[in-house]
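Hi everyone,

Forwarding the result from last night's run.
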Amino acid sequence: MDEEFETEYVKHSLLGRELVEFCPHALKQMKVRGIDKKEVIGAVEHPDKVGLNCPADRERVRRFKKKTKAIDVVYKLKKDRVLIITALFKTFPARR
């Protein structure tokens, strides 16, 4: 049977809000992909790229872990919190 995920909240100052909400979808995808909450928060706090393609009511940022690997985080700013929608790894070919 599939593991059930429930919304989790982390008290952390981020983008002018004091709370970070991880929705069940984000938590499930993070577990499958081996991404932890600290990595997600770090990517939103200190992105290497911003304004990446995503739906109009959301933001997508990228934080490089290595030259060929990055974490992308999709989130939505709510009045009182940052809602994390998903997180994923992106890989890039090595440059010669």
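The helical segments are 24-33, 37-45.

Cheers,
N.
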